[in-house]
Amino acid sequence: MKHKAGFVNIIGNPNVGKSTLMNAFVGERLSIITSKAQTTRHRILGIVNGDDFQILFSDTPGIIKPAYELQASMMDFVKSAFEDADILIYMVEIGETTLKDEKLFNKIKSSKIPVLLLINKIDKSSQKEVEEKLQYWKEKVPNAEIFLISALENFNVENVFNRIIEILPESPAFYPKDQLTDKPERFFVNEAIREKILMHYKKEIPYAVEVDTEEFFETEKIIKIRSVIMVERETQKGIIIGHKGAALKRVGVEARKDLQKFFDKKIHLELYVKVNKNWRSNKRQLRRFGYND
Ligand code: GDP
Ligand code: K
Ligand code: MG
């Protein structure tokens, strides 16, 4: 049997379940998941290896109209995901009716590469609604193959996976067969911390935050990590730290638990908070954090 390999890029509106799906495919929590839009800021590669195939899934930020430089770079990740795909996964959730970016939507409809349209979250709706939506999307994106799924409950995900293998092009592997992602270990540390911040702080706080891991030192028994939580203003620093440091402590404890599972090793995690004015609008800063590259 010939070897198959290719890029399968997942795009769609915020919160439809893209990261949940990618993690279900990969079987690891590579992408952080919360109920908030803009949880995913980067394009994250998840690699699934078999004896005669290698699938390179890309999770991307949800499609939005950029309001500042950070969001503009997030949309560049989405555009790039469009350009190198062998198979496109366009994900919608059961309640929605259109993509927020019309240009991109037209690109999907006129796409020459195969499009799998996944209607997600069908666990939330009635049989009648599911049938209506199926009909709706058939007419709206006639070039797509449609699947009804629940990424959360792993319903029908395997059928999508098998179909991907069928239509994947013949090609040698792009990455070593034991590799799971293209991102360095520090990236997953930053993301684990950011996930807890998204979960525990209100309003604009999560969007004003970036995490930078300054030290990642692994010995046989333990990984020592020091990370900085960057905020834009002094007041935000106070909120992150909380009364007697309790809020920051909770972030540290929960992130450490996740990281111990992820790396399967004991973790020592030190967290600092620093004010770094307007990092979201500063191109040079954004490059440092892995955007615009
Ligand atoms: P993304 O922004 O598209 O990456 O979406 P996420 O994967 O972060 O998921 C957004 C929210 O939808 C989270 O609260 C998920 O738990 C939830 N979610 C994802 N898939 C499903 C699903 O199949 N059914 C239900 N009920 N919720 C889901
Ligand atoms: K989300
Ligand atoms: Mg996401």
From TrEMBL:
Keywords: Cell membrane, Cytoplasm, GTP-binding, Membrane, Nucleotide-binding, Ribosome biogenesis, RNA-binding, rRNA-binding. Residues 38-42 are annotated as: G2. It is found in: Cytoplasm; Cell membrane. It comes from the Bacteria. Residues 4-170 form the Era-type G domain. Residues 59-62 are annotated as: G3. One of its GO terms (molecular function) is small ribosomal subunit rRNA binding. Transmembrane segments: none annotated. It is a peripheral membrane protein. Residues 120-123 are annotated as: G4. GTP binds at residues 12-19, 59-63, 120-123. The keyword Metal-binding does not apply. Residues 149-151 are annotated as: G5. GO terms for cellular component: cytosol; plasma membrane. One of its GO terms (biological process) is ribosomal small subunit assembly. Residues 201-277 form the KH type-2 domain. The keyword Cytoplasm applies. Residues 12-19 are annotated as: G1. It holds the Pfam family KH_2. Gene3D superfamilies: 3.30.300.20, P-loop containing nucleotide triphosphate hydrolases (3.40.50.300). Monomer. PANTHER family: GTPASE ERA, GTPASE ERA, MITOCHONDRIAL. An essential GTPase that binds both GDP and GTP, with rapid nucleotide exchange. Plays a role in 16S rRNA processing and 30S ribosomal subunit biogenesis and possibly also in cell cycle regulation and energy metabolism. Belongs to the TRAFAC class TrmE-Era-EngA-EngB-Septin-like GTPase superfamily. Era GTPase family. This is GTPase Era. It comes from Lutibacter profundi.
